[in-house]
Each structure stands twice: as C-alpha cells, then as structure tokens.
Specification:
Radius of gyration: 18 Å
Number of domains: 1
Number of strands: 7
Order of helices and strands: EEEEEEE
Helix content: under 10%
Structural class: mainly beta
Distance between the termini: 43 Å
Strand content: over 45%
Number of helices: 0
Largest sheet: 7 strands, antiparallel
C-alpha cells in the first residue's frame, strides 16, 4: 500500500466541512441533521464535489443514572463522485457526559 498523499508526487487538496441543525422537541426528541461535504481540488471534472443533504431524529433518554442519545439520520447525496455513495443511513448511540471543567 502506498502513501496517503504527498510523498509520491501526487498531492492532495481537499476542502471539507459540516453543516448541522437541531430542532428540540418535547420529551428528549430532536429533529436534526449533520451532513459532511467535501471538494477535491485535484479531482477530474464531475468528481470534485461530495455534497449530501440530510435529516434525522434523535431521542435522549435515561438508562440508569446516565443520559444516552440515540440518533438515526438519512443522507441523500445531491452530488457525488462516480465512485461515491448515493445515499447513506447513519446510526449513532452515545452517552451524554458532563464537561470536565
């Protein structure tokens, strides 16, 4: 397996980001989305952008003495490289922890 980028003369130049939103509802429910997009500056025409739109739901609930967040999102890619995804389902389960400071 070769190097990831740079040392063999093939540079990598990618700009990426994430937009997100959350709408808090009652009883620990949320409507949310957090898709990640990217632009590959060195890609061939038509393969540079990866841009999804996404929506999902989340529920925060107590399990024992710890709150947990369960999340389900669906992403649809408006633009994706030839080898990229068209759709994605994301599932998240995470404990809610206090800030250490």
């Amino acid at each position: 397996m070769g190097p990831l980028a740079g040392s063999d003369g093939d540079g990598t130049s990618i700009t990426g980001g994430q937009y997100f939103y959350t709408i808090n509802l009652k009883n620990g429910w949320q409507i949310n989305g957090s898709p990640v997009y990217s632009y590959n500056h060195n890609a061939s025409s038509g393969n540079a952008w990866t841009f999804p739109i996404g929506a999902g739901v989340a529920k925060t609930t107590m399990i024992g003495s710890r709150p947990w967040k369960f999340n389900l999102q669906y992403w649809h890619y408006l633009v994706s490289p030839d080898f990229g995804p068209g759709n994605q389902i994301r599932i998240g389960i995470s404990p809610v922890v206090e800030f250490p400071w």
